[in-house]
Design brief:
Length: 209
């Protein structure tokens, strides 16, 4: 398990990961438009939050891991002091237009029903949740035994999990969409079709109804 500082340095030094992160940020900000507040759910070390704040968006951050949160407080010190990044405790005490959950935050949940019910009280009607999740159809994972072992579960149930230190679960988009209903509807999946086979991450956009 990486410390917050190690995680932060690994991500900032990875051109591939930063390219994915920047695509996610760009999509989130294009959807949000000129104004509105953001909840960065599972904010990690504050990389996304700092970027949102730099573009003028007030950003609430929720991060349960102590090591990540401590590094976030250092990395976003100026933004926190200036009120453009706002730390949340155990409760999601905010009302926002957008919730972002980048880099597989939602893959650490075995079921998303309770989470989306909670987020329904946070996201204003017409707002959205944008999540970057591990893509269960990514063919780059076919070289691993755990992927082949779980292929039947993916086909039958649209989901699977395997034993790791962090307890990662993988889901087909439809499974997450059913958990999000009736509060949110799945509006967009990126990529789609054959593009899913070549992408480690998929972006799921849920609209508050």
């Amino acid at each position: 398990m990486h410390t917050g500082e190690q995680y932060h340095d690994i991500f900032l030094s990875s051109k591939r990961d930063m390219a994915v992160r920047e695509r996610f940020q760009r999509m989130a900000l294009e959807l949000l438009g000129q104004e509105g507040d953001i909840l960065d759910f599972g904010a990690g070390t504050g990389i996304d939050a700092k970027a949102y704040a730099a573009r003028g968006y007030r950003t609430f951050v929720y991060e349960p891991a102590d090591s990540m949160r401590e590094h976030l407080e250092r990395y976003c010190h100026d933004e926190i002091a200036g009120g453009t990044v706002i730390r949340l405790g155990t409760e999601l005490g905010c009302k926002v237009q957008a919730v972002t959950a980048n880099f597989a935050v939602l893959n650490h949940f075995a079921d998303h029903t309770a989470l989306f019910e909670q987020l329904s009280g946070v996201v204003e009607h017409g707002g959205f949740v944008l999540a970057s999740m591990l893509n269960p159809y990514y063919l780059g994972d076919a070289r691993y035994g755990w992927w082949r072992k779980n292929l039947a579960n993916l086909v039958r149930h649209g989901r699977y999990a395997f034993d790791t230190e962090s307890g990662v679960h993988r889901f087909a988009p439809g499974v997450v969409a059913r958990a999000a209903a009736p509060h949110f509807r799945l509006e967009r999946t990126v990529p789609r079709g054959l593009g899913m086979a070549a992408s480690l991450y998929m972006f799921l956009l849920f609209r508050r109804v």
